[in-house]
């Protein structure tokens, strides 16, 4: 159980848990199973009827069907997940990302049934899920904040009142999760009346929680996030930062580590403040503190995610730390070292999204030095329409950003995914764009590059 983040005397020959139920699907479930195999932990996959032939089902030691294709009746069904853990004798649960990974109710249900939840305590998740409480905590830790709502938003009337107090434009967000689900830019009261219920419905469908919050909308920032980890003894470390500025409709598309735009003093301040915040929270497990960063060097705390991120592989490559293993080690009581690990080299991740469902008729995934692919695809697999469209992550590592960019373009050119439409062509366009190469993009840049008619149609859908 050696891991360079932890003191060697914490290495132990036996885990306090032995069988892990993975409460997720797709590539993150495959990723967790891989680490469990290395660590000698047995695995239980759960699946909906739609996912009966999914790769994570094939790879796990055991698999349990937990319901029909609807996420609400399967992957968001707490009683079905707990039942699957108990019937298989699992003694730990890893929630992955999305679905119930930031659910207080799910974390508490695991606790109540003597299941080790691989993540923070229900109390910590509740604190950081309460956006105003999280903002106050981060303010005490010294992080600068944008103006935001003072209480959870349950209805349109409260949202309108809070938006007037904060001042339009505002960003409306789901309180229970991230990934762009339930997120809308609101420019005036009329837009709030038109979009609040739609965003709330989307939040409920994605996280089984329709609480919302809002904050002042900054028009042209970059999105920077700091990876933190805390142990059971009050120690916390920042494991570098990631630049997640390239987004489409609030969904991340390309991520980089480190964030090349940050001056060294700003980076050090951001990492140190993030460590201080995690320590002040007595945070246990892996988490991400997200910031909006302006070109003048100012930055503002946005939110903290209490789970592993989609983009964790680029931090793994630059720090040489298995973050999933680190989650298990924290849950097992291992103690962090005092020093922050150095970040070396440059890593880029491109998210490959399915634009249509369908059967994979031909598949070739790239390889070579510095190349990593996280996916649950295989030839003959049918990509369903029920869930998020991300089907693979292409990751490259190099000594410098320019080298990594060139390698990523070669990797995408080598990738073959036939039978469905994907965003591979869009990824190449982004990588070749002068603004991307010069690091002059903002979080709205990609949406602004879209065909105006298409953008107008998408805004109407919002």
Automatic annotation (TrEMBL):
Keyword Signal: no
PANTHER family named in the record: BIOTIN CARBOXYLASE, CHLOROPLASTIC, PYRUVATE CARBOXYLASE SUBUNIT A
Catalysis: reaction(s): N(6)-biotinyl-L-lysyl-[protein] + hydrogencarbonate + ATP = N(6)-carboxybiotinyl-L-lysyl-[protein] + ADP + phosphate + H(+)
E.C. number(s) listed in UniProt: 6.3.4.14
A Pfam family this chain is assigned to: CPSase_L_D2
One function term, GO molecular function aspect: biotin carboxylase activity
Biotin carboxylation domain: residues covered: 16-451
UniProt protein name: biotin carboxylase
Stretches assigned to the ATP-grasp domain: 135-332
Biological role: This protein is a component of the acetyl coenzyme A carboxylase complex; first, biotin carboxylase catalyzes the carboxylation of the carrier protein and then the transcarboxylase transfers the carboxyl group to form malonyl-CoA.
Keywords: ATP-binding, Biotin, Ligase, Manganese, Nucleotide-binding
